[in-house]
Amino acid sequence: MALRILFCSLVVLMVSFHFANFALSTTSSVDTTAEVGTAFYEEAEALLNWKASLDNQNKSLLSSWVGDRPCNNWDGITCDDLELGVTRLNLSNSGLKGMLYNLNFSSFPNLLTIDLSTNLLYGTIPDSIGDLSKLTHLDFSSNNLSGSLPLEMGNLGNLSYLILQNNKLSGSIPREIGKLGNLILLYLSNNNFSGSIPQEVEMMRSLTELDLGNNFLTGPIPASIGNLGNLTKIILQYNSLSGSLPQEIGKLGNLFSLNVWSNELSGSIPREIGMMGKLDLLFLLSNNFSGSIPQEVGMMRSLTQLDLSNNFLTGAIPTSIGNLSKLRQLYLYSNSLSGSIPEELGSLKYVFVVQLLNNSLTGPIPASIEKMSSLLDLNVYGNKLSGSIPSTIGNLTMLTSLILMMNELSGCVPVEMNNLTRLTNLQLSYNNFVGQLPPQICQSGMLVLFGAVNNHFIGPIPKSLKNCSSLLRVGLMETI
Ligand SMILES: *[C@@H]1O[C@H](CO)[C@@H](O)[C@H](O)[C@H]1NC(C)=O
Ligand SMILES: *[C@@H]1O[C@H](CO)[C@@H](O)[C@H](O)[C@H]1NC(C)=O
Ligand SMILES: *[C@@H]1O[C@H](CO)[C@@H](O)[C@H](O)[C@H]1NC(C)=O
Ligand SMILES: *[C@@H]1O[C@H](CO)[C@@H](O)[C@H](O)[C@H]1NC(C)=O
Ligand SMILES: *[C@@H]1O[C@H](CO)[C@@H](O)[C@H](O)[C@H]1NC(C)=O
Ligand SMILES: *[C@@H]1O[C@H](CO)[C@@H](O)[C@H](O)[C@H]1NC(C)=O
Ligand SMILES: *[C@@H]1O[C@H](CO)[C@@H](O)[C@H](O)[C@H]1NC(C)=O
Ligand SMILES: *[C@@H]1O[C@H](CO)[C@@H](O)[C@H](O)[C@H]1NC(C)=O
Ligand SMILES: *[C@@H]1O[C@H](CO)[C@@H](O)[C@H](O)[C@H]1NC(C)=O
Ligand SMILES: *[C@@H]1O[C@H](CO)[C@@H](O)[C@H](O)[C@H]1NC(C)=O
Ligand SMILES: *[C@@H]1O[C@H](CO)[C@@H](O)[C@H](O)[C@H]1NC(C)=O
Ligand SMILES: *[C@@H]1O[C@H](CO)[C@@H](O)[C@H](O)[C@H]1NC(C)=O
Fold it and tell me: Locate the Disease resistance R13L4/SHOC-2-like LRR domain: which residues (predicted)?
């Protein structure tokens, strides 16, 4: 190292006096014409060996890699400090195809960041990765890397960003990961990781984003995750995690996004979720959650997206949902929810999707829906709703899709429906509607799908429907 620094000062000096061609070429076997900068033989050798091993070298890119001075404008190489040699390696999205394994990481003692994302690198991650003790940023995402994570990765105590998503990495997530006390982002999604989430994640106190989605992880979500108070994002979607959602999750007061979509989580939704005052997105859909939706859901005042669909939830929709004044998307479909649709839902003035289909909801559609002025899509298919469509529906002038099919709704279709001039999909089939269809039902010419079968409609098919050129599919048979 001392020798290297000596060389460096010498050369910097020479360069500044335009004597560059004296440079230390005698010890190098490679071409040294026009060199500027210091020779870093080990680093140059490691890079050139790797280049030679690649299946596809992207000639245009790596053509700059000649000689023994990687700090001298080699593409993708940065030397922050000319005395320290290579500090950054960035060959992101460069069409490189070959084995990562052939890159000898032991040769880069001063490497701070490495970004080889979006290439066609395959094979395993070499154990020598553990020698990069100063590394803060590692990104091998979107390649074709396989094999398991080397335990030596636990030595990367300075690492802040570990980005490995979109590969074919397998095996379990090593416990050693807990040693990465400075890690801020951990992205391991879209790989073949299996086994359980190690308890040791709790040691990564700086962690703000954890994405383990789309793997084959099993076992529980460790309760200790509640100790990671800096977390803003947890993505565990599309795994096979089981057990309950730990109540400790409520301690994550900075959490912005919690996504456990498509796992096998069971038990009830803990009341403690209400403590996550910054939560913007809560996706618990497609799990085995049971019990009722806790009233505390209404305390998550920052929520914009709430999806609890496709579980085994029972009981009523809590009235407190009306307090989620920022909510934009509400999905509760395919559960066993009962009781009536709460009046308070009308307070959701920014909500544009409400999907309550495939539950056991009873009672009327509340007249308060008139206040949901952003609503585009309302779907209550397959419940036991009764009463007539409130005339206040006419206020929902943004509505494009209204699906009331398969309920016990009755009465006449209110003329105010004529005001819904943006409606493209209207499904009224399988109810107990009577009277005539509103004559102007397609006056705007927007309707594409319309169904009204299995009701007790009388009278003529509205002229506006016959002239409705936009209509692709219409079900009117047996309407009369
Ligand atoms: C690598 O380069 C790409 C494209 O120039 C850039 O977007 C990315 O942020 C760089 N990576 C790092 C770690 O600096
Ligand atoms: C090779 O690298 C150059 C420079 O980064 C890039 O523009 C080009 O798209 C790459 N070629 C392939 C085949 O990816
Ligand atoms: C990798 O580099 C280190 C340090 O430069 C060296 O000691 C080791 O022999 C190299 N390993 C291989 C397989 O070339
Ligand atoms: C990725 O690796 C697998 C084998 O692990 C191979 O079958 C596949 O062709 C590779 N894909 C690409 C894009 O190289
Ligand atoms: C982090 O890097 C510094 C040098 O930048 C080094 O002294 C220290 O040992 C490294 N820490 C760990 C835990 O490896
Ligand atoms: C990854 O998992 C997929 C789906 O199970 C499987 O087809 C593939 O062979 C696995 N690949 C590796 C490298 O384990
Ligand atoms: C958040 O991270 C900082 C350092 O990055 C750490 O000092 C602090 O203890 C962490 N907070 C919690 C609650 O773990
Ligand atoms: C989740 O529910 C599915 C469908 O009913 C069932 O097959 C599976 O065994 C359940 N898993 C757990 C962990 O409860
Ligand atoms: C909604 O919030 C108000 C206070 O902001 C509170 O008084 C009320 O109880 C909440 N409603 C429900 C149903 O939780
Ligand atoms: C309706 O929900 C139940 C669970 O409550 C589910 O098993 C079923 O597949 C759903 N049906 C449809 C058509 O989505
Ligand atoms: C609904 O529309 C009627 C008639 O235009 C209007 O008087 C009423 O204020 C509207 N309601 C809301 C909540 O905007
Ligand atoms: C709806 O249409 C009726 C007449 O069809 C009209 O009187 C009413 O003001 C319109 N607006 C609303 C919001 O209902």
Answer: 103-233, 318-432
Cα(181)–Cα(202) distance, integer angstroms: 10
Task: Report pLDDT for 439.
Answer: 77
- With CA atoms as reference, report the closest residue to 138 among 121, 165, 115: 115
Q: Which residues line ligand 11 (CB under 6 A)?
A: 370-371, 395
Element (H, E) at 5: helix 2-16
Shortest-distance atom of ligand 5 to CA 181: 13
- The predicted model scores a pTM of 0.88
Residue-wise pLDDT for 91-141, tens only, equals: 999 999 999 999 999 999 999 999 999 999 999 999 999 999 999 999 999
Q: How far apart (Å, rounded) are the C-alpha atoms in residues 34 and 276?
A: 61
pLDDT beyond 70 at 75: yes
The residue whose CA has the least distance to atom 3 of ligand 10 is 334
What is the spatial distance between Cα 109 and Cα 105, in angstroms, rounded to a whole number? Answer: 8
Question: What tens digit of pLDDT does each residue of 296-347 get?
Answer: 999 999 999 999 999 999 999 999 999 999 999 999 999 999 999 999 999 9
Taking the centre of ligand 9 as the mean of its atom positions, its distance from the CA of residue 393, in whole angstroms, is: 26
Cα separation values, 13 from 17, 22, 36, 70, Å = 7, 12, 11, 18
Atom of ligand 7 nearest to the CA of 184: 5
56 Cβ below 6 A of ligand 2: no
Most informative mutation of 57, 94, 119, 121 for ligand 2 (most atoms within 8 A of CB): 94
- Distance from C-alpha of 358 to C-alpha of 113, rounded to nearest angstrom: 50
Q: How confident is the model at residue 457 (pLDDT cuts 50, 70, 90)?
A: confident
φ/ψ region of 131 (left if φ > 0, alpha if ψ in -120 to 50, else beta) reads alpha
CA atoms within 13 A on the CB side of 461: 14
Ligand 4 atom nearest 146 alpha carbon = 5
Q: How far apart are the first and last CA of the chain?
A: 92
Residue 4: its pLDDT value, please? 41
